[in-house]
Amino acid sequence: MAADAGQHSTFHGIGVSAGIAVGPLVVVTPAPTAPADEAPTTDAAAASVTVHGVLDEVAKGLEARAAVAGDHAKPILEAGAMMARDPGLAMGIDNHLQAGKGLTNAVTAAVEEICTMFESLGGYMAERVTDLRDVRDRAVARLLGQPEPGVPTLTVPSILAAHDLAPAETATLSTDTCLGIITAAGGPTSHTAILASQLGIPAVVQATGILGVAAGTTVAIDGGVGEITVNPTADEVTMLEERKKRRAAALAGGTGKGATKDGYPVALLANIGTADDAQKAAKQAVEGVGLFRTEFLFLDRDTMPTVEEQTATYTAVFEAFGDRRVVVRTLDAGADKPLKFADLGPEENPALGRRGIRLGMIRTDVMDAQLEALAAAYKATGADVRVMAPMIATQAEAMWFAEKVRALGLPKVGIMIEVPAAAIRSKGILYHVDFASLGTNDLQQYTMAADRMQGELADLLNPWEPALLDVVALACEGGAAMGKPVGVCGEAGGDPALALVLTGLGVSSLSMAPGKVPAVRTSLGLHTREQCQQMAAAARAATNAADAKAAVLDMADPVLRDLL
User: Fold this and answer.
1) In the predicted model, is pLDDT for residue 42 greater than 70?
2) Residue 532 is among the residues annotated as catalytic for this protein
């Protein structure tokens, strides 16, 4: 039931994209569901033709939007169209039609079967569940003779509220008309969270109760702390606007290399996933790339990309950054990101299965081809290339990878620390390589035994969790003992407050979405290294994530609150 349009209230979700906005609420209408009383199918062949035609219409609609979309939205829309045309989905629907289910119920049942499989796989595949259900909703709407669901045309700048937003919808939003995003579902690493941050739109997820607020109601959103104010007072709006101005003023002076107030260097780097990302990030004030995800070259392909194809892409990325470092993560695929040309078969628990380096050690042809291409691109550019492997857990794995990389003449070899075992034994592992980078997203889900794609476990996936900070500290202690740098390339590195804690723990670089760099740079410049170390100690001494963050904010320069 909608809240009283004049009622004043404040509630919280999880802030996932910093910024402040005030405006009228536009509630995204829920998608239609398959009717419980739908007539059963009596002619499965005819029904199949109808449903396949509708799926083709959905695919064409997504492709048409992709043709005019921006670079960040295009691949998301194309992925949705590919799902609508997936033969496995069509076969599943046909099976349910033959069993007598009605049109929309057959579509719903087939989609849910695939979603269940994707969610059990975890990681990349679990992230695609939202895309698949978006295809379902569009198909069901068409079969019912209703308009496809989605964000309505925004005639005035507004704040969107929804149960969740499909990536195809979030990716096409414009900062001119979308002031903020609030969802009742989702998590810190959901598509909505990541895309909102990339677009610079303030966003709050897991905001229980937002769908009870009437459309048109004025709301204020603080995407840093996750606070939502319904019908804010004039004084509250003034306070938020003043904070917005203070934040802009604080960020205006943030240029140059990352360093604490007393000059301790902390390199600020960009996370990228494509050559297009590289071109954009290279134009910004970043010190290089801390994580170049190479999966886009391999996923959704029937055959492995050639060495020549890979070399051309890597060369373009290296050239874009000139003499700035580029840290490349080798293929992070396997059970949770299955490759058609390197499928090792089903596994009971894919998140703990043959992914990352484990796949590379089995399919050495895939690993060798990628390293050969990276070596060729390095020789062609002379760039500052650093190559690291994902999911390292033992010294033997680190040694195996290091020997391969060095044999090809690549200058620096490193490892990802995403497995607690690697953090605990970092000293021994770092003996064999030149650097390490902490993937805090995976490291946290393995430390807390909580699937990072499951929104209901968001509390356990808070990067301020003291247990995670303890594991990070262990990794950094090993790095200090061996004189080897340890960086962070997970989402935690882009939090201006948590960046201080990570610096205090001994991290030497922070890699993040390029748009987050200015706030982190400013935050570091407000505090000395000793202050960072004191904050790190206070956060680790806390009993929970909320207390850890509160302790740091109490110790920090007051300007920090305006950066969140």
Assistant:
1) yes
2) no
